[in-house]
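G.,

No rush on this.
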Amino acid sequence: MPMQQHDSRPQAAEATLDGVSETALWTVRMRARESARTQALFADPLAEEFLAGAGPAGAPPGDGVLQQVLPDWLAVRTRFFDDHLLAATRAGCQQVVLLGAGLDARAYRLDWPAGTRIFEVDLPAVQGFKEQILAGRTPAAAHRVPVAADLLGDWRSAAIAAGFDPQLPTAWLCEGLLFYLEPRAVDRLIATVSELSAPGSTLGAECLNAATAESPFVKPWLEALSDAGTPWIWHLADAERWWAGHGWQAQVADLLALPYVVERFAPHLSAFPGMNTDSMMLVTATMPAGGR
């Protein structure tokens, strides 16, 4: 794994969890389990260390079909965006911005082009917990830049103060984030992203397909999330049109055209023939010349 390590590491008991959301812990627990699989779609050794610092992590609410599929969905989503970000940086994006980064460890675990800067934007409390776990570690090729800021506030100034350069093409990632926000908050957030994106920038985002929100596959999941106090609020009906309204040329990935997705989802498709394979959309987009 592309990571340099030093001997000075905090003990798990020293880490504090203030501000780290339950959803971030669900995600990192699934990453740890995926990394332990024989044919894992990615390897994230730091996931186990985050869990050790966090203590027991809960599980997503409810027990519907989507919850059973969720660990494999997360693995597919992670692999998809890993590939997208690496392709973007190898094509010339010198900086990456992970919005709502949570306990993401991509700065350490991916084979970045030398000198790539990875800006991780999240709340100060999240950054504080993460820094305790990562103390003494330096990514092998990338330069990791934590940005402590609220995405509902002035995170733009914080990113620029941390060294983000709006004149350079950027690879943006909104993974597991947007559907938790009010529509107007999503509009504001993506408007800021667009303003900061030089031509040649790319974007990856996970979106809930509004057309399937009432389906037997998705509705029980949304109800369970709402009952647990973590509702998915933002749904998207026409992804290409919505992103075009913010200056991006976007497309929704045809996931069943990817061999690793077909292999991973095959058991679910046979067990649950009514499963909506398009309920979650993985969107990639580019900022054309003159787009902002």
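When you get to it, here's the other one too:
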Amino acid sequence: MRKSDRLFQLTNILRKHQPITAKQLAEKLLVSERTIYRYMDDLSLSGIPVYGEPGVGYRLSEGFELPPLQLSPDELEALITGVSFTASLTGRNLAASAHSLLSKIEAALPNDSKLISSEDRVVRVPSGHRESEVYLLWGKVHSAIEARRWLNIEYRSLAEVITARAVFPLGLFYWGGKWTLGCWCELRGDYRDLRIDRITRFELSEHAGALPEHVSLPAYIKLKSTKAD
């Protein structure tokens, strides 16, 4: 990463997490504390109003704002590809927000940008997902995760066996063309990965059962990472 990019990243961290110590900044940027001290000198010399308080950490002067964001062509293409993915492969509500964001991005581009027209984009995301049942169910699952609601579902396994389950949804994951729901399954007493396209019945539950204390999205992800290793 170029030094200018690193300083820009550092400024954004300061805007979001202040006061913050040199040690914490070093951990976030994966550099030494000595390097952070040099970066702070560079920021001051470039006119960024940053100051440190002994025993407290670094801050930016109140009211400081960065100039409008400038993106390289590759960064812009990456952003548009990600937004297009969200618009095409998630659910109705999030897709609508992604389309709105895409319009704002395009409105801010110079008229001669090759990415302003969809015909000029060489990276494409298929839109057939919008016609599937998963497209409609995705948004409901997403809302249930945000609301921290138990679900009553019927699930059809790969062996075509249908089971009724009470599950606590944790996160949505996209694996090679299929969305899965990472969840805590009360029936199995364990984490499960359930394909969204194999959920045959879905409803919010008034289930009052307590979720085990150790169950969380970070714990689920850690477990999956351990198994992958």
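The chain is about 40% helix and 20% strand. The mean pLDDT is 83.

Enjoy the weekend,
O.
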